[in-house]
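Field reference: "sequence" (input) and "structure" (output). Example, K+-transporting ATPase KdpF subunit:
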Amino acid sequence: MTLPLALAGFTALGLLVYLVAVLVRPERF
């Protein structure tokens, strides 16, 4: 069950990066 765990981690990491980007540069969104 390594693949689902990797996908979940990648999704969480991507979402975290997106949220940080929105907080840092809200004028772009």
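Residues 2-24 form the longest helix (23 residues).
Residues 12 and 21 are 14 Å apart (CA to CA).
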